[in-house]
Amino acid sequence: MKLTAETQNELFKTYGGSEKNTGSTEGQIALFTHRINHISGHLSTNKKDHSNTRALLKLVGKRRRLLNYLSKTDLNGYRALIEKLGIRK
């Protein structure tokens, strides 16, 4: 599913507080998670798509850095977010 403006606004409204709050850490992590899931689905059928593989690895690294920042600043918010997004198993 392509990331449309409506989907992006919905993600920021759900996780970032409001759809105008695009700079919130929680909203950005949710956006990266959505994009990671989309690219992972694409790569399951197109295994030799190396440019998207690189993009996936870059997104995972960005999300990891934001999650580290969130865990240092707001541990309860971090735990709630990973529970909502289902990142950790």
CATH class: Mainly Alpha
CATH homologous superfamily placement = S15/NS1, RNA-binding
Distance between the termini: 23 Å
Which shape, going by the Cα principal axes? globular
Biggest sheet character: none
Please provide the ordered H/E string of secondary-structure elements.
Answer: HHHH
Low-confidence stretches: none
Q: Which class of secondary structure composition applies to the elements?
A: mainly alpha
Q: Remind me, CATH topology?
A: Helix Hairpins
Number of helices: 4
Strand content: under 5%
Radius of gyration: 13 Å
By CATH, the architecture is named Orthogonal Bundle
What is the mean pLDDT? 92
Helix content estimate: over 70%
Q: How many E strands?
A: 0
Number of domains: 1
Give an overview of the whole structure.
- This protein is mainly alpha-helical and 89 residues long.
- The chain has a single domain (5-85), classed as Helix Hairpins.
- The protein has four helices and no strands.
- The protein has helices spanning 5-16, 25-45, 50-73, 75-85.
- It is globular, with a radius of gyration of 13 Å.
- The two termini are 23 Å apart.
Descriptive tags:
Helix Hairpins, globular, mainly alpha, 89 residues
Summarize the structure.
With 89 residues, this protein is mainly alpha-helical.
Q: What is the secondary structure topology, with strand pairs?
A:
Layout: H1 5-16, H2 25-45, H3 50-73, H4 75-85
Helix pairs in contact: 1-2, 2-3, 3-4
